[in-house]
Amino acid sequence: MSEDIAIGVENLGKKYIIGHQKPERYTTLRDAIANKLKSLGHQPLRQRLNNDAPGREDFWALKDVSFEIRQGQRVGIIGRNGAGKSTLLKILSRITEPTTGRVSIKGRVASLLEVGTGFHPELTGRENIYLNGAILGMSKVEIKRKFDEIVAFAEIDKFLDTPVKRYSSGMYVRLAFAVAAHLEPEILIVDEVLAVGDYQFQKKCLGKMEDVAKSGRTVLFVSHNMQAVSQLTERCVILAGGRTHFDGPTDKAIMTYLVAQKESFDQPAYYQAPPNKSGNHVTWARVHTSEPQGLHCWGNPIIFEFALNITEPQEGVCFSFQVVNAHQQAVTYQWLFDSEKPFGHQAGKVILRCIIPKFRIYMGTYKLITWLSGRGRIITESLSDICFFEVTMQSIVRNEFDWHPDACLYIEDANWEIYHP
Ligand SMILES: Nc1ncnc2c1ncn2[C@@H]1O[C@H](COP(=O)(O)OP(=O)(O)OP(=O)(O)O)[C@@H](O)[C@H]1O
Ligand SMILES: [Mg+2]
């Protein structure tokens, strides 16, 4: 391993042996319980045991994974549930042994893998801080020096002398994170810790991890939060089915990952009305994002396009839509009155196009709600949860941003166009 390599991984593989129960045909819980009871009553014990004996199968949670991480590099590991991310971190933290391959690590590792590891439940917060420091190879004096900082960061002063088994999962992870980040490890390995804490704490953790990274230490970070990954890392490894699918710059990795996700199971960036719709209504709607598969890169032009079928022409028509985030909050809205640009005055199809030259909206998943109203503002049709799309913030200086993800956006320069095809 060359001088400046902190972590080297070569042909790493991890095999688990998993058991399969025989599939059960029962459709309801009641049936399942009833059948179980019935079978217990009538079958001899030997037969019951045979029926329940699971089949066994080799399962590779990681296969042929190789990479090197330079000292001071900040690397994200991303991938779908079950991709092998935690398995990889557990091997690197020496919690579990690899089945094949080799790992070489240079430097003191602190890892925060999941709530429940690293701490002794019977010991108090105070005792666990000392225990963890000692495991990390720090002297008592060194730990003492960091102690107040850790307690202040974790905000658990009142519970310092309570056994950690009495902590809430949020408190637990606060302390665990504070210990791992403050005890000056040379390599910090963190798995999804941000998912547990509240928003304020998540922000604090990210800030702390940035400090750790800036001070030249190596950071390995697993998260499903692409915003956090893009903020914190410069390089990402995408794992898929236990294998390396991509290894390169974070911007490109996130884009690759999100596009693949969209292709496989996400909802579409368009809407198509059912054929039996009557009255004035939207026949289809589409979001033209800057990238394929409903993926939009922050700051690029976006077009929201709606085809209306007008069966009852009238004056006073209005069409509006909101962009809604994953927390069901509307982050921006647009509308068009027929008095501004005439539409809906003649029967047939009309296409409305709302063009936003620079669509700057926080990273995340969004969808639309639409309203079509007629004379007297009577709502003719309202659609919700249509046209899903995803925004990424690629290659902008993210460290300077301290936005709240739900911040509303008022777009002044939207242009509406109307076509009568
Ligand atoms: N002890 C175990 N015994 C059997 N299978 C296991 C064991 N630990 C993990 N696995 C399997 O290995 C695969 C990878 O698991 P892993 O926890 O590494 O996924 P992950 O990428 O961290 O997923 P997530 O995003 O859900 O945290 C999964 O299919 C999991 O069921
Ligand atoms: Mg995991």
Question: Can you summarize this structure?
Answer:
The chain contains 9 helices and 19 strands. It is α/β, with parallel strands linked by helices and about 425 residues long.
Description:
The structure is a single chain. The model is unreliable at 41-53 and 395-400 (pLDDT under 50). The chain starts with a strand and ends with a strand. The longest helix is centred in the middle third of the chain and has 16 residues, at 199-214. It is built from nine helices and 19 strands. The protein is elongated, with a radius of gyration of 27 Å. Helix 4 (125-135) packs across helix 5, helix 5 packs across helix 6 (169-182) and helix 6 (169-182) runs parallel beside helix 7 (199-214). The protein has two domains: 5-13 and 59-264, 3-Layer(aba) Sandwich (Rossmann fold), CATH 3.40.50.300; 270-419, Distorted Sandwich (Coagulation Factor XIII, Chain A, domain 1). Strands 5-6-7-3-8-9 form a six-stranded mixed sheet, sandwiched between helices. It is of the alpha/beta class. 26% of the residues lie in helices and 35% in strands. Strand 10 and strand 11 (281-288) form a beta hairpin. The chain has helices spanning 29-42, 45-52, 85-92, 125-135, 140-154, 169-182, 199-214, 226-232, 250-265, and strands at residues 5-20, 55-70, 74-78, 100-105, 109-112, 187-191, 218-222, 235-240, 243-249, 270-272, 281-288, 295-297, 302-310, 318-325, 330-337, 348-356, 364-373, 379-392, 415-419. The structure holds adenosine-5'-triphosphate and magnesium ion.
